User: Fold this.
Amino acid sequence: MNAPVRTAILKRQAALPADPAALKQRARELLARHNAVLVAHYYVDGELQDLALETGGCVADSLEMARFGRDHPARTLVVAGVRFMGETAKILSPEKRVLMPDLEATCSLDLGCPAEPFASFCDAHPDRTVVVYANTSAAVKARADWMVTSSCAVPIVAHLQERGEKVLWAPDRHLGRYVQQQTGADMLLWDATCVVHDEFKGIELELMRREHPRAKVLVHPESPDGVIRQADLVGSTTQLLRAVTEMDADEFIVATDAGLFHRMRQLAPGKTLLEAPTAGTSATCKACAHCPWMAMNDVEKLIHCLSEQGAPIELNADVIRKARTCIERMLDFVAAHPLATKAPASGFVPHLGTA
Ligand code: 13P
Ligand code: SF4
Assistant:
């Protein structure tokens, strides 16, 4: 076969749509060859979630991803999620190689809390204990006393409140306000939001509830107050998933990223799941309730990062050392209080009120 013909055939093959089953098989082989384990978040593509579970990895919330990556013996962790999740894995396991399908996948909360202004904010309030959400850069964590995730923010701040400590909180103002309401703690809040959860609408949710009076309302605490106030349960992604499987109800309105529905449908196949509204009937456009950065992860990119041995997460050793303290404090707390993350602090509460 002459060279131009061979080039034409190769080009045509490259243009053919990839067979999903073949791609998954290739990904499985590469994970095994590189002694790598896939640590995925519930918001990434369903195919990646399935692949993680089929290959001995995990699909989890931020807290469980951090614990799983730290405790797993694999030399390489492939974190399918957003940048802060990969950084947390690296901070907890600096000796491991941490890869991500797309290193550009970030988070609006991380972007909304740059390290320098945050450090100035902390400097201006030296009397406060600095508590940061997991959705922050390693440099921001390096300045914090505690890191928390949505599954343990309330019990940890309640614990600080009992010790008489005043809190400086960053970056999610909705989660910060929710934690403040639940604990009564003295909290000074940074002002950033999640581009996905901030779009859920309280008034539209009220209308939807009237149409579905038997539906239970499940809300991630990054949502606005008017949405949280209508919740039967407020919790992390894992806690919302558990509620769908355990609550005595057939219908749920869910206010979180639509990626979680994949696992919810697998674990509670008979139940009806409705997406909480992101816009009014008069609106010309509706937010899709799917994180644009989580959506950057797919099986092809996973293959690419493993086969090319894509660029691993690299962090300055001093930043790792400083950031590790606040993460380990959280992990020690949840290990010592296992019930604290089993159910949200609010429990299966009745509606708190209307929007
Ligand atoms: P979870 O820790 O509840 O999974 O939340 C992470 C996140 O980014 C939600 O938007
Ligand atoms: Fe960040 Fe929101 Fe995306 Fe979660 S869903 S990673 S908080 S932008």
The first helix runs from residue 3 to 15. The chain has 16 helices and twelve strands. The CA atoms of residues 123 and 218 lie 37 Å apart.
